[in-house]
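Translate structure to sequence.
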């Protein structure tokens, strides 16, 4: 019998990707399509669920075009934790004041609901213990409250279904309204086995969501990877050019799919400190536009400023804590492209790598190596330039969306060397932010001994090495760089019932590529730089307090 395949679909912030994956975790083919983002107002970021589904269909058709459709055993979807709004006929409802019906999705990074989030935090409700004690504007309750308070007639009163984007995709594929525990537990305050806390929704002014057993936000749930409905519907199968009835696994948030695609990998022979330890000794970082820090535990651990603990939100039966940085790749791009020497950088990179297509960050990494004195580490170039990286607020562990970015140590010049140093200091600040999250998790009871990195920034050698150096932990990179797509395919594999458990599928399909060890000689340097990092936070708060005096 011919070998089967699984399809993984990943919806990121800027694009939709799909992969055809073998049972052994090998990516046979991949495809990618861009998706549109609109910014109608400051802090408002919206998308179209119709556009996203259309692009999903395009990439799935492309990766399966040369395969007999009966060999596609299952399909899994992951996506950003954005909010999709549909009416009673499952048609899009606008989430913007311009009323454009196509734009019916509030993106994860939309911070329009900061004031609503602060009000929800002030209630002190018990559900807040599951989100680090602070309600983030990136979670769904404040976004829902904003829609009710600001777009009551044009949106709220018309809305009949609020989906997390991953659940929208699995509904579109199967017609099943069953939500994944991943989305509801992590982003909506759902808590199994009790379920929804009616008192919470009533206390924040969203009591209308209690109607019909919470039908607008989901009354049926299941674990990620569970088979949904009867598989692909006739319409979805036609859209995707696959067979009706093809198994569809309950979906995951994109970061959690990256975790699934890495955390269970067989590490024997790599001499890692987490070898012969449970997988709770591992933390997965999914590094792209933003970064998510995923740690799991056998018992619930409450980490101030870190989301969770969430039962079965990533790995069934284990508790998930999710830290994060709201802007990482986006911050690096902001710092580099906004610098006065950016045009020079582009030209130099084109001249140096005219045929290889090397990107500007590879050029900057090489440039920093040339700047370092003979035998000296690149890291030490960041001794007198320091960055606090919360240009889009702090998700973890401070959980303060009002925090701003800081740069200390600028000179009166804008040379290419200055740009390279600012880039280096930004990467170092992001790595120290990861250390800040690790320290909070350790204090709460986590014992993390190894980092597992995936996502776009894991392809940047400087970013990876500095994370190892700053944290003092080895960094594992996946054999297949697209670990998020592997995680999405794991969902399809589980739904097909070719594997008995998610853990079995992870062990078979997730593979270690290489290990990056920390430079022990830099330990003292990063201990000092981390002290400066924490002082930056303290100083920003001091400045805020001074300016708030009357």
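Result:
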């Amino acid at each position: 019998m011919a070998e089967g395949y699984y399809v993984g679909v990943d919806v990121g912030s800027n694009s939709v990707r799909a992969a055809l994956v073998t049972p052994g975790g090998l990516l046979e083919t991949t495809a990618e399509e861009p998706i549109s983002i609109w910014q109608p107002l400051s802090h408002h970021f919206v998308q179209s669920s119709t556009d996203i589904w259309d692009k999903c269909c395009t990439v799935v058709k492309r990766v399966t075009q040369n395969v007999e459709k009966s060999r596609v055993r299952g399909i899994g979807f992951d996506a950003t934790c954005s909010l999709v709004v549909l009416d009673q006929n499952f048609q899009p409802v606008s989430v913007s004041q311009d009323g454009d019906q196509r734009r019916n999705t509030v993106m994860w990074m939309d911070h329009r609901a900061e004031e609503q989030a602060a009000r929800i935090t002030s209630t002190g409700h018990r559900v807040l213990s599951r989100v680090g004690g602070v309600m983030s504007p990136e979670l769904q309750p404040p976004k829902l409250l904003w829609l009710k308070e600001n777009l009551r007639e044009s949106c709220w009163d018309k809305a009949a279904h609020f989906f997390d984007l991953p659940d929208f995709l699995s509904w579109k594929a199967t017609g099943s309204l069953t939500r994944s525990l991943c989305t509801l537990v992590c982003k909506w305050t759902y808590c199994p086995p009790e379920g929804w806390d009616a008192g919470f929704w009533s206390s924040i002014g969203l009591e209308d969501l209690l109607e019909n057993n919470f039908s607008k936000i989901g009354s049926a749930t299941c674990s990620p990877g569970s088979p949904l409905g009867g598989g692909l519907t006739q319409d979805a199968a036609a859209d995707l050019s696959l067979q009706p009835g093809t198994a569809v696994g309950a979906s995951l948030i994109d970061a959690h799919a990256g975790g699934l695609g890495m955390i269970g990998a067989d590490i024997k022979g790599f001499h890692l400190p987490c070898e012969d330890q449970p997988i709770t000794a591992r933390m997965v970082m999914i590094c792209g536009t933003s970064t998510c820090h995923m740690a799991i535990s056998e018992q619930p651990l409450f980490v101030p400023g870190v989301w969770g603990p969430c039962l079965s939100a990533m790995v069934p039966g284990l508790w998930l804590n999710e830290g994060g940085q709201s802007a990482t790749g986006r911050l690096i791009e902001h710092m580099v492209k906004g610098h006065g020497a950016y045009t020079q950088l582009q030209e130099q990179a084109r001249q140096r790598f005219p045929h290889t297509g090397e990107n500007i960050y590879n050029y900057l990494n090489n440039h920093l190596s040339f700047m370092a004195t003979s035998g000296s580490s690149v890291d030490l170039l960041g001794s007198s330039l320091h960055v606090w990286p919360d240009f889009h607020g702090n998700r973890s562990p401070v959980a303060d969306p009002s925090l701003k970015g800081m740069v200390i140590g600028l000179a009166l010049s804008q040379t290419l060397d200055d740009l390279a140093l600012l880039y280096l200091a930004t990467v170092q600040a992001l790595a120290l932010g990861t250390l800040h999250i690790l320290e909070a998790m350790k204090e709460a009871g986590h014992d993390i001994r190894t980092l597992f990195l995936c996502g776009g920034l894991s392809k940047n050698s400087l970013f990876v090495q500095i994370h190892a150096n700053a944290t003092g932990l080895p960094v594992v990179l996946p054999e297949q760089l697209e670990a998020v797509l592997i995680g999405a395919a794991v969902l399809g594999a589980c739904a097909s019932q070719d594997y008995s458990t998610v853990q079995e599928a992870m062990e078979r399909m997730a593979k270690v590529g290489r290990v990056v060890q920390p430079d022990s000689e830099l330990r003292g340097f990063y201990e000092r730089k981390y002290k400066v990092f924490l002082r930056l936070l303290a100083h920003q708060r001091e400045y805020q307090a001074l300016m708030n005096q009357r």
